[in-house]
Structures are given as C-alpha cells and as structure tokens.
C-alpha cells in the first residue's frame, strides 16, 4: 500500500505540488490525469522515490519511499523507463534481461535459478510480441517497438507495484489497446497495483478503477471514472468542451470532443 499524506513538492521557490493526500490500495489500477504542466510526472516521481516530498510524507508499506534502498525498492516497485533504455550495443533480449538487476549481487550473480530467469524473459518476450525482434538492437526498432521492450523489461522485474508515465505515447491505437489489455491481464494474473499517468481520458476510463485529477499541483478530484469524468470537470481543468457518453459495452464514461 502506498500512502501520501499532505505531500507537497517545491523546486526552489516554485511550489509544484500542494497538500496531496491519497492511499493507493493493492490490486487496483489508478490513472493520474490532468493538463500539461499540472504536476503528474512530479507526483509519479514522489511515488517512485526519485523526489523527496518537501513537506508531508509518502510511504510504501509504512516506510518512507525515498529512504528505501534502490534495489530493495526495485524488487517491489517498477517504473516504466520512457527514455532510459540503452540505445547501443545490446540486443532486445539483453535489454529485457536487465530488468533482473534488483535480484543480482554486486558481481552480477542472480539470486534465482537461470531456468527461472530464462522462463521469465521468454514469457515477457512472448507477451509483448517481441519474438521476432529479440536479437535486434534498440536503434533498429520503431518507437512503439521500443515501448514494448520497456514494458517487457518491467515484467521481468517481478515487482508488485508498476508505475507508468504515459505508457501509450508513440503507440498507434491498435498497440495502445494491446498494451493496456496486456497490462490488465498481467495485473490480474499477478495481483499488481498499477499507477499510470495517462493523457487519453477514454483509455483512462476504460482501464482504471480510480482516477486522480491533478490540476495546478493539487488533487482536484478523485474517484471512479464515472464520478470524475464529467463535462464540468473537464471544462474547468482542460478548458475544453466535451460531451460524456457511456460506453455501450463497457459501461464506463467516454469523452466526446465538442469543438466550438
Ligand atoms: N526540474 C524542474 N525545475 C523547475 N520546474 C520544473 C522542473 N520539473 C518540472 N517543473 C515544473 O513543474 C510543473 C509540473 O511538471 P510535471 O512534469 O510534473 O507536469 P505534468 O503534469 O507531468 O505535465 P505534462 O503533461 O506536460 O507531461 C511544470 O510547471 C514544470 O515546468
């Protein structure tokens, strides 16, 4: 369980986040939404231990997140590396295998058997549809293929909490749906907690149990997609006119753009 209590974050004199309190429960999918510059990534960096709150507390299983040792934290919490993958020298399979770093000692010796690790890697390669690309180098892949490599690397990390910063960026709609479906299935099989910054409100409504709206560094609204995604909230937060309709099959709200 991750708990935020009156969390604030400041860079020099600029207050980026104000007084955010929220509890993330195990096994749920959370979407963090809000306009550009609202503070979504900054909040994700607090959850991942990268940012230390300048006031308030952020805990995971009752420990201050930023004080947990990096490898220990990485065994419990995995963060999608948007730009962090090595671009030269390594094959797709080697890069995915790097997701095992939290389970290796200083000499690089893995704590689990090589059979277990090989199986984990192959499962991730299959799930992400990377079978035919596994011997390629990253610079030979498209943006969408790289994104799938990053997710596969996350899968082998075996963490219970997954943080994703705009995971569907660079993906066409087919891969967006594939990726979110895959994350959903993976989440259900492993009882994961997923916390994702999402720009696409319809994807957020389809895949998240709860949404948090960050607006000007504050938690402006939170709750089920149905409670949060109203035309009034969207108008206030994004200055955009929309209409909300229920999805005919999934029974979740969908946002229809309504230009002037
Ligand atoms: N290192 C930094 N130094 C100064 N200001 C920063 C820094 N990082 C972020 N900010 C500011 O903090 C605010 C929130 O940034 P953040 O990246 O968290 O927003 P976001 O909601 O994720 O935006 P986007 O949707 O555009 O990715 C912005 O005004 C940004 O300019």
TrEMBL record:
Residues 2-241 form the ABC transporter domain. The keyword Translocase applies. Keywords: ATP-binding, Nucleotide-binding, Translocase, Transport. Gene3D superfamilies: P-loop containing nucleotide triphosphate hydrolases. Coiled coil: none annotated. One of its GO terms (molecular function) is ATP binding. Pfam families: ABC_tran. This is ABC transporter ATP-binding protein.
């Amino acid at each position: 369980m991750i708990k935020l209590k009156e969390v604030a974050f400041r860079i020099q004199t600029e207050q980026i986040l104000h007084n955010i309190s929220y509890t993330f429960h195990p096994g749920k999918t959370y979407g963090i939404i809000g306009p550009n510059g609202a503070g979504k990534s900054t909040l994700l960096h607090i959850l991942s231990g990268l940012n230390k709150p300048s006031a308030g507390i952020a805990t995971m299983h009752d420990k201050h997140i930023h004080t947990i040792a990096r490898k220990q934290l990485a065994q419990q919490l995995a963060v999608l590396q948007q730009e962090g993958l090595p671009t030269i020298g390594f094959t797709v399979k080697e890069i995915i295998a790097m997701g095992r770093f939290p389970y290796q000692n200083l000499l690089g010796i893995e704590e689990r058997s090589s059979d277990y690790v090989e199986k984990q890697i192959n499962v991730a390669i299959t799930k992400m549809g990377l079978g035919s690309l596994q011997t390629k180098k990253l610079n030979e892949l498209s943006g969408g293929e790289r994104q799938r490599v990053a997710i596969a690397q996350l899968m082998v990390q075996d963490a219970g909490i997954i943080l994703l910063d705009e995971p569907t960026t660079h993906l066409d709609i087919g891969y967006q749906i594939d990726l979110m479906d895959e994350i959903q299935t993976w989440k259900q099989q492993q009882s994961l907690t997923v916390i994702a910054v999402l720009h696409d409100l319809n994807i957020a409504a389809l895949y998240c149990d709860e949404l948090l709206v960050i607006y000007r560094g504050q938690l402006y609204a939170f709750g089920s997609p149905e409670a949060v995604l109203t035309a009034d909230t969207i108008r206030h937060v994004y200055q955009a006119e929309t209409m909300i309709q229920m999805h005919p099959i999934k029974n979740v709200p969908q946002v229809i753009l309504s230009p002037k």
